[in-house]
Amino acid sequence: MPAEPEVGIVTPPLPMPGVTRRAPFMALLLPLQSPDFRAVADAFVRGVEAASQQHPSRLPVEVHPTDASPEGIYQTYAQLLPQGAAVVVGPMTRSGVSAIASSGLVMVPTLTLNQPEANVSLPSGLYAFGLSVEDEARMLARRAFRDGLRRIGIVGIPTPLSRRTREAFLAEWRQLGGEASVTLEAQPNSDLTQMRSMLTERTLDGIFLSAQYQEARMIRPYLPAQIPVYATSQVNIFPPDPVGMVDLNGVRFIDMPWLLSQDYPSVASFPRPMDLSGDVLRFYALGVDAYLIATQLADGHNRFDLDGLTGHLSVHSDGTIERRPRAAVFQDGVPTLIE
């Protein structure tokens, strides 16, 4: 009888003298040695472990910790290939992804957990996955355009992530033929009445709000109540805050099924760790989906679809992975699915 596939995550053995090649394995290349990324990387590993228990792979899974430096990530990746890595999952940082993408070393399917930096292209065999809010912004631009909006106002906060998200939305919006009538940066702790006056004076079909939950709560009451507001998953938190979320009533957003509907078929079978919350919980879901994608890549598939915890996933042979989360709206302080 064939051997049962190995389940769970193992620690890689020490290499024997003069021997580098081992039996094929799935390598997780994660910044567990970085204080800034350790919590999300650990949650990611727990998601992989949960997925491997429900969907055993023919490959054992090994964790290979790195720091967050491109040099350390490059060095560890280069060591994995001759040891027998059949598929690599990681790295998690943009700079690390760029280091691998431009290394010339990609010889096995490699599922990165972020996008490379803007000037770096994807080599054959590298698949870019992740929870990019810039991708969500582009999706929202397309959704708002399909909803019939043409003149939109853009409101953000003075942070690098907000600016990148606004830029992604605006580029997609203009490519579709939409018009951005006004772009404003709001200081949530300041007097926002002038911002409200400027927005009210414009003829707008809608507003794109680029802010995280706490800032979005303070800004939302100053946005015109009669026009739709769109936002990324940044405005949604877990566990929910039913009192605070009332401030966001009417805001339409997209987020992963994992945080919107426990009854969704792809979600229902996975346990929800009670000690995880917020963005850390998101990375648990990312770990589940990354494992499911990686097992398909290891089996030689390079074009397929999956219903995952983070959304419906379409993997393309050019290395792009389209993640389609679900749409929701805040009603009476509760995120409610639109469709």
Describe the model.
By secondary structure, the protein is of the alpha/beta class. The protein is 34% helix and 21% strand. It is built from ten helices and 16 strands. The strands form three sheets. The chain has a seven-stranded mixed sheet with strand order 8-7-9-10-11-15-16. The protein has a six-stranded parallel sheet with strand order 1-3-2-4-5-6, with helices on both faces. Helix 2 (70-83) packs across helix 3. The chain starts with 8 loop residues before the first strand and ends with a strand.
State the gist of this model.
The protein is of the alpha/beta class and 339 residues long.
Number of strands: 16
Largest beta-sheet characterization = 7 strands, mixed
Widest sheet: strand order?
8-7-9-10-11-15-16
Order of helices and strands: EEHEHEHEEHEHEHEHEEHHHEEEEE
List the helices and strands and how they pair.
Blueprint: E1 9-10, E2 25-30, H1 38-54, E3 61-65, H2 70-83, E4 85-89, H3 94-101, E5 110-112, E6 126-128, H4 133-146, E7 151-156, H5 160-176, E8 179-185, H6 193-201, E9 206-210, H7 213-219, E10 229-231, E11 251-255, H8 257-260, H9 265-268, H10 278-298, E12 304-307, E13 312-315, E14 321-324, E15 326-331, E16 334-337
Parallel strand pairs: 1-3, 2-3, 2-4, 4-5, 5-6, 7-8, 7-9, 9-10, 10-11
Antiparallel strand pairs: 11-15, 12-13, 13-14, 15-16
Primary descriptors:
339 residues; alpha/beta; 7-stranded mixed β-sheet; 6-stranded parallel β-sheet; 10 helices; 16 strands
